[in-house]
Design goal:
The chain is an alpha+beta fold. Helices cover about 55% and strands about 15% of the residues. A hairpin with a 5-residue loop joins strand 11 and strand 12. Helix 1 runs antiparallel to helix 3 and helix 7 packs antiparallel against helix 8.
């Protein structure tokens, strides 16, 4: 009980214990003031008591609120601890699941490892089986030696059959103990060399078999690792049939060289005969041709007026034929010289060479409508004079076969060819040719048009092909009848030997 409560109790006791005399004074007018004071005092006491009870109630309310807040705090703390406990439980369950998952994964990895081990062991067994089969089926001799002692641990059937021994007679011996290898090299020296170099080889080694036959072999020995053991493998190849083959090749080479020498001599004779023929053509045939032309001219001057029109035509045909034969002789001589003259290779600017060559045709193209399309051309390595002859023949060919066109078009360009070659093209819109006969164009005397249609001897394109072949290139053509033609030639970008 607090101080206010005790005061209130004491006042209550004093109020209830007042004597009756005081009550009597209340009826006394003089005592009315005292009564009022007493009532006021009682009212104040009751007010104080009410305020005290209010304060106590307020205190108890605050205490209750405090206890409620504390209870709520403890409740929240309990809920938090519960949530934390549940979280820890969930985490524990998750860790348990993870542990179980890792356990399953570990078990799976263990199973996979065991499976791989089984497969590896199976692979090893299969590999060993394959090796054994190859070892026993090999067509080369194989020796497996101990690296320290040089003793034979294994030998394949091919070798002991080749040497005439049994497997039992060779196993666990050194190769020095076997007759065929005794004169090769002391086993100690061979082992030391193999240890230092890792490999030792003997070429064209002569061995004597058990039955006395001489055989030639190549022997290669090398060190290899087999598990934790170091071994030596010797491969022995029987080359007896090969040295025989080489002997036969040597014999055939000698015969071939002899035949080449004979053919060269024959070619030399043929060249000399060709030179003699060329000389004969140049001197012996030109004389009669000059006589024919000369006498034809004399006959025309002396008797031309008295001859009939038909006789004059015949006389003109004789002169034309003689002149054509003279041109043919000139072209044949040129064709023969093209194959014999030495080549002088230099860097040739084809664009400049085309311009220089076109200047030779100014008189021939005078009065004609020709569109020239000269593309950018590369620099090649070749014989300038011979390449100029190629351009002269091909440009002349294009001009001849476009003569019937009111507007001729000639294009000279550079196209993509195979690797390692430069390709030049000369295209025209002239008479063209039947593509079925394209392979005949470059042959001597091969013509696809009559002399009446287009003049020529049939030697020009043959000269082109011969010159290009000497440069190591190729020549070809495309065309259609009355649709123009395109002639191509290629020059290697390297420097092939002249032929």
């Amino acid at each position: 009980m607090n101080i206010e409560d005790s005061t209130f109790t004491e006042r209550r006791k004093s109020a209830t214990s007042e004597p009756a005399s005081i009550l009597a004074r209340e009826n006394d007018p003089g005592a009315s003031q005292i009564g009022r004071d007493l009532r006021v005092e009682r009212a104040e006491i009751r007010t104080e008591q009410a305020e005290s009870r209010t304060a106590q109630a307020k205190t108890r309310t605050e205490q209750a609120e405090t206890r409620t807040e504390q209870a709520e705090t403890r409740m929240e703390q309990a809920e938090t601890r519960t949530e934390q406990a549940e979280s820890r439980t969930e985490q524990a369950e998750a860790r348990t699941e993870q542990a179980e998952t890792r356990m399953e994964q570990a078990e799976n990895r263990t199973e996979q490892a065991e499976a791989r081990t089984e497969r590896s062991e199976q692979t090893i067994r299969e590999s060993e089986l394959r090796y054994r089969r190859l070892f026993e089926a090999a067509t080369d001799g194989i020796l497996i030696l101990d690296v320290e002692t040089g003793r034979i641990n294994d030998v394949n059937p091919f070798l002991f059959n080749l040497l005439g021994f049994t497997h039992a007679e060779m196993i666990y011996k050194t190769i020095g103990d076997l007759g065929p290898f005794r004169n090769v090299e002391p086993i100690e020296g061979m082992l030391e060399r193999i240890k230092l170099q890792g490999i030792v080889s003997y070429d064209d080694l002569s061995l004597e078999t058990r039955d006395g036959r001489r055989i030639a072999v190549d022997l290669v020995s090398n060190v290899y690792q087999s598990g934790d053991k170091t071994m030596i493998r010797c491969n022995i190849r029987d080359i007896t049939e090969r040295k025989r083959a080489e002997g036969e090749i040597l014999r055939l080479n000698v015969e071939l060289e002899q035949r080449v020498a004979e053919r060269t001599a024959q070619l030399q004779i043929a060249n000399e005969e060709l030179e003699a023929f060329s000389y004969s053509v140049s001197h012996d045939l030109r004389g009669p041709l000059r006589h024919i032309l000369g006498f034809a001219d004399l006959l025309k001057m002396d008797a031309g007026a008295s001859l009939s029109e038909k006789g004059n035509r015949h006389l003109g045909s004789i002169s034309e034929a003689a002149e054509r034969m003279g041109s043919l002789i000139d072209d044949l001589l040129t064709f023969s010289r093209v194959g014999k003259s030495p080549m002088q290779k230099t860097e040739v600017n084809l664009e400049e060479l085309v311009g220089e060559t076109l200047s030779d045709f100014q008189q021939e193209t005078k009065g004609r409508t020709i569109t020239w399309d000269i593309r950018k051309l590369p620099v090649v390595r070749g014989d300038r004079s011979l390449l100029r002859m190629v351009l002269v023949n091909l440009i002349s060919n294009a001009l001849k076969f476009t003569h019937g066109r009111a507007h001729a078009k000639i294009e000279i360009g550079h196209i993509s060819g195979s690797e390692g070659e430069t390709v030049i093209s000369i295209r025209d819109n002239g008479a063209g040719f039947d593509p079925r006969y394209a392979n005949k164009l470059f042959g001597v005397f091969q013509r696809l048009h009559t002399q009446a249609e287009f003049e020529g001897t049939g030697i020009g394109l043959a000269n082109v092909q011969r010159i290009i072949h000497r440069h190591g290139g190729r020549a070809w053509a495309e065309g259609i009848v009355d649709g123009g033609a395109t002639f191509y030639f290629s020059i290697p970008t390297g420097q092939p030997p002249s032929k």
